[in-house]
Amino acid sequence: MTATLTERGTHRERRAHVAALHAELTRYGLVTWTSGNVSERVPGEDLFVIKGSGVSYDELSWEGVTVCDLDGGVVDGVRKPSSDTDAHAFVYRSMPEVGGQVHTHSPYATAWAARAEEIPCVLTAMADEFGGPIPVGPFALIGDDSIGQGIVATLRGSRSPAVLMRNHGVFTIGASARAAVKAAVMAEDVARTVHLSRQLGEPVPIAQEHVDALYARYQNVYGQ
Ligand SMILES: [Zn+2]
């Protein structure tokens, strides 16, 4: 991507909203230093906004959020966009239903990713939110489309809005940035609980028909 890095101040409201959502990542302990990012699509404009690279969470305002086109090129902003921008762009191009994305290295979920082990659906909260296990995506190097391809290959057709990219971390999608943030918070929460459960024995799976019923009910009540 060629970053011209000029500020025109467009999409300021959406950038401020996305900047503010980053506070949820620190509140729930999902990120360290400047890692992690939130993005949101600009509906109808073939654009999205994403956290700038290396911007500290304490000084994140709308100006720390950059506007990009769907190829990841900078359209407006003074900060180079996140190094994960190509992955976000690939997902927005490939999945038109996705309105927001989050990436973190949240510790419990990333510990499952480091083992390339999906999180089994052993909690009703998981059935509600993820509709089954949280799947593992392939190993992918940063720098081209391969992370985005891995996310899309794993999540397309899956009920889960979260994928554990192998040896890396968590990527979540949602109808909005807020929905993707919720999925990232819930993914870490269930990763921790299932991990704790496993220390004491083997967690008991939930029967598929119960997973289906819980998911249908929850999505009906709380779904978009
Ligand atoms: Zn990462």
Automatic annotation (TrEMBL):
Cofactors: Zn(2+)
InterPro entries: Aldolase_class_II_sugar_metab (IPR050197), Aldolase_II/adducin_N (IPR001303), Aldolase_II/adducin_N_sf (IPR036409)
Keywords, comma-separated and alphabetical: Metal-binding, Zinc
Cellular component GO terms, alphabetical: cytosol
Gene Ontology biological-process annotations: pentose catabolic process
Catalysis: reaction(s): L-ribulose 5-phosphate = D-xylulose 5-phosphate
Matches recorded under SUPFAM superfamilies: AraD/HMP-PK domain-like
Pfam family, one: Aldolase_II
This enzyme's EC code(s): 5.1.3.4
Domain annotation Class II aldolase/adducin N-terminal: ranges: 16-195
One Gene Ontology term of the molecular function aspect: aldehyde-lyase activity
Broad class of enzyme this protein falls into: isomerase
PANTHER family according to UniProt: FUCULOSE PHOSPHATE ALDOLASE, L-RIBULOSE-5-PHOSPHATE 4-EPIMERASE SGBE
Entry's family note: Belongs to the aldolase class II family. AraD/FucA subfamily.
Name this polypeptide is given: L-ribulose-5-phosphate 4-epimerase
Native source species: Geodermatophilus aquaeductus
